[in-house]
Amino acid sequence: xxxxILLSTDSEVDLTKFNSKSVEFDSELPPLVEINELKYKNRWxxxxxxxxxxxxxxxxxxxxxxxxxxxxxxxxxxxxxxxSTLEFAEVVLGLVQTGAKVxxxxxxxxATSESTTEDILPVAISSMPKQNFRFMECRxxxxx
Length: 144
What we know:
Blueprint: E1 3-9, E2 23-26, E3 42-48, E4 58-59, H1 79-97, E5 102-108, E6 119-123, E7 135-136, E8 139-143
Parallel strand pairs: 4-7, 6-8
Antiparallel strand pairs: 1-3, 1-5, 2-3, 5-8
C-alpha cells in the first residue's frame, strides 16, 4: 500500500508548473472517498519521486503526538524525503502568501467507502520553519 496525499486549493494556478524530480502535482485523482472531504474546488494528487506520495516525511498514526519537528537522528528519514517535503512546503507557503486557501489529506491508498481521516489540523505554514513540516497519516491539514 502507498500513501496518497490529496490537496485542494481555491487558487487557479496550475500546480504542475511546480513539478520537479521530487514533487509532482497531478489533476488525475485516485478513487478515494476522502476526496469528498477536501474543501476547495481545484484538486490535486501529490506525488513524489516514487510516483505515489510515499517519498515525503510522514508520521504513522501511532506517532502523531510527535507533531511538527525537524528531522531527528533517532527517527530515520531519507534525505530525499526531507527535500521533497521542503519543496512541497515552499509551494504551499507561496500559495498561502498570495491569499490562496489550501488543504490536504494524507491517507493510505485503499478501496473502501468509508473515510480514514481522523483529525483536521490547522497548520500555520507562514510562521512554521519549513523543515518542521511533515505529513501525518490519516490527517486533514488546513494551511494558514
